[in-house]
Write a structure and sequence with these properties.
Shape of chain A: globular
Number of helices of chain A: 11
Strand content of chain A: 15-25%
Number of strands of chain A: 14
CATH architecture of one domain in chain A: 3-Layer(aba) Sandwich
Distance between the termini of chain B: 15 Å
CATH superfamily of one domain in chain A: Glutaconate Coenzyme A-transferase
Mean pLDDT of chain A: 97
Oligomer: heterodimer
Strand order of the largest sheet of chain B: 4-3-2-1-5-10-11-12-13-14
Helix content of chain B: 10-25%
Low-confidence stretches of chain A: none
Radius of gyration of chain B: 17 Å
Shape of chain B: globular
Number of strands of chain B: 14
Number of helices of chain B: 7
Largest sheet of chain B: 10 strands, mixed
CATH superfamily of chain B: Glutaconate Coenzyme A-transferase
Order of helices and strands of chain A: HEHEHEEEHEHEHEEEEHEHEEHHH
Strand content of chain B: 15-25%
Largest interface: A-B, 54 and 52 residues
Helix content of chain A: 25-40%
Order of helices and strands of chain B: HEHEEHEHEEEEEHEEEEHEH
Chain lengths: ~300, ~250
């Protein structure tokens, strides 16, 4: 049975107020279109999880969707601060924001523990750092096999994960190339999974290259097809990162007023990603990369 | 040949990578520093990006630490789980470069908060990979501009441990990484005293006075004896920065 549905329906049915939500993608494949739909549907009191909030959570925090952030680095990569994030933390605008802070490895470890149903995950980070003082969920323990000590973090099990990918079949078997970040860990760690793709393909395409399947349809609830869905983030082979937009965001987000105006025009003012794409068509066309094909490989036919 | 203060800082930092085989590339200035080193004196330097790339060969300078250009043409792309466990924690990285909002007398770095954690005056981005890079890479370099605000006697919060309280205090951590080796700034290069592990001024950049440096550090900083002068960037280093790596001058002007 096909799991293909619209963005509106997927968010409406699978994301509830108060949910813990992970829209992952480490700079690559960040599902901005889902974030915008969550804003449009005025979801509230979400706990948002990402290693780096990036612009997507900066936008969602400013829109009042978020009550808590679980993260490891809250900056605008290569540009500077995330102003909406800072306003929320320093001044409670638009509302107070609770923080639960780790390091990148700590977040990776949390998702892994969640995905593999473990009670904790050990790692050697945090020695000499004040982070465990700031976050009492980062703890230390002794190895059961000797006197070595390691730090541990608890599992992270979101209610819903939303992942962008190059392609999937209508069953939700999802293929990704380029940076895979913690996409698969976030998916396996979550109760519900929404996959958003540039292209829907026939299952024969998936079956012809199974090494590339990162998320099996087994754990996917909904598949949404929205080309350009990751803009201003990028999709390897499809479109470039809109670096100028990341730079422009610094000025847009500096004041709550200018940020609200931007949301009115580009989120509330469009019915969905298709309309956003039409408005941005000229800008988006400039983001198409050249070609860099890999050599085809032969899996071999075995009878 | 004329050069900017930033170009000098970038070239000086790139020179510290001599002899390194595998470097962890951080966001911001470390990005251009590592790419400059790879294109000049360290062509065999393997660039590792925490986003999940080993052996990157970016065709253009990435704005951030995740960019499609670090994937195309790389030796290996892996999940972040593999990157942090099998490459970084396993001990395969020689050099890590950190940026610093604040760095103190013993090289402890703060990228978390100015003020208290509960009620910060300024909320900084946080650790990212810095907390683990600081203890898992064999050698650490920091690159940041010199100012009293950025060089307090003690940081408000230790995100990434340097030499802690100095002396043998870091050894108690029993971690692989030996801690900060040098701090490259826009006015001077600082290194760490072998015994006390206190930061000292090791070389002044051309046309910079000792007083200028003193005015921009919150504690009574010591100067190495003898004190050297930082070599200026070569023509080739400047050409690489201006023509190949950063033609828009985002980092270098």
């Amino acid at each position: 049975m096909s799991k293909v549905t619209t963005m509106h329906d997927a968010i409406h049915e699978l994301v509830c107020d108060g949910d813990t939500v992970a829209i992952e993608g480490f700079t690559h494949l960040i599902c901005f279109t889902a974030g915008h739909e969550i804003i449009r549907q005025r979801k509230r009191d979400l706990t948002l999880c990402r290693l780096t909030p990036d612009l997507i959570y900066d936008q969602m925090i400013a829109a009042g969707v978020c009550k808590k952030l679980v993260f490891s680095w809250a900056g605008n990569p290569g540009v500077g601060a995330l102003h909406a994030f800072r306003r929320a933390v320093e001044k409670n605008i638009p509302r107070p924001l609770e923080l639960e802070e780790y390091s990148h490895f700590g977040m990776v470890a949390r998702f892994t523990a969640g995905a593999a149903r473990l009670p904790f995950y050990p790692l050697r980070s945090y020695a000499g750092s004040d982070l465990p003082k700031a976050n009492p969920l980062i703890r230390k323990m002794q190895s059961p096999y000797g006197d070595e000590q390691v730090f541990v973090v608890p599992p992270l099990r979101p209610n819903v994960a939303i992942l962008h990918a190059q392609r999937a079949d209508d069953n939700g078997n999802t293929q990704i190339w380029g940076l895979t970040g913690v996409q698969k860990e976030a998916a396996f760690a979550s109760d519900r999974v929404i996959v958003v793709v540039e292209e829907l393909v026939d299952e024969s395409v998936i079956h012809a290259d199974p090494n590339r399947t990162i998320i099996p349809g087994l754990i996917v609830n909904a598949v949404v097809v929205e080309p350009w869905g990751a803009h201003p983030s990028y999709v390897q082979g499809y479109y470039d990162r809109d670096n100028p937009f990341y730079v422009e965001w610094d000025a847009i987000a500096r004041e709550q007023d200018s940020l609200n105006k931007w949301l009115d025009e580009w989120v509330y003012g469009v019915s969905g990603r298709a309309e956003y794409v039409e408005k941005m068509r000229e800008r988006l066309e400039k983001l198409r990369p050249g070609d860099a094909f890999a050599q085809p490989i032969n899996y071999g036919k075995y009878k | 040949m004329n050069y900017t203060q930033n170009e000098l800082m970038i070239a000086a930092a790139a020179r510290e990578l001599q002899g390194a085989r595998v470097a962890f590339v951080g966001v911001g200035l470390p990005n251009i520093v590592c790419n400059l080193a790879q294109r000049s004196h360290a062509p065999h330097l393997e660039l590792v990006y925490e986003a999940g790339v080993f052996g990157a060969h970016p065709a253009r300078l990435p704005l951030s630490i995740g960019d499609p250009t670090i994937v195309t043409g790389a030796s290996a792309v892996c999940s972040m789980s593999d990157l942090f466990q099998l490459y970084l924690q396993r001990g395969l990285i020689d050099v890590g470069f950190l940026g610093a909002a604040q760095i103190d007398r013993f090289g402890n770095v703060n990228t978390t908060v100015i003020g208290s954690y509960e009620n910060p005056k300024v909320r900084l981005p946080g650790s990212g990979g810095a907390a683990e890079i600081a203890v898992m890479c064999e050698r650490i370099f920091i690159i940041t501009r010199l100012s009293k605000r950025a060089f307090p006697e003690r940081v408000d919060f230790i995100t990434s441990p340097g030499h802690l309280e100095g002396g043998t205090s870091r050894e108690k951590l029993r971690v692989r990484g030996r801690g900060p080796e040098a701090v490259i700034t826009d006015l001077c290069i600082l290194r760490f005293d072998e015994t006390t592990k206190e930061m000292l001024v090791a070389s002044l950049h051309p046309n910079v006075t000792a007083d200028q440096v003193r005015e921009n550090i919150a504690w009574d900083v010591r100067f190495a004896q003898p004190l050297s002068e930082t070599p200026p960037p070569t023509e080739e280093e400047i050409r690489l920065i201006r023509e190949e790596l950063d033609p828009q001058g985002l980092y270098s002007r």
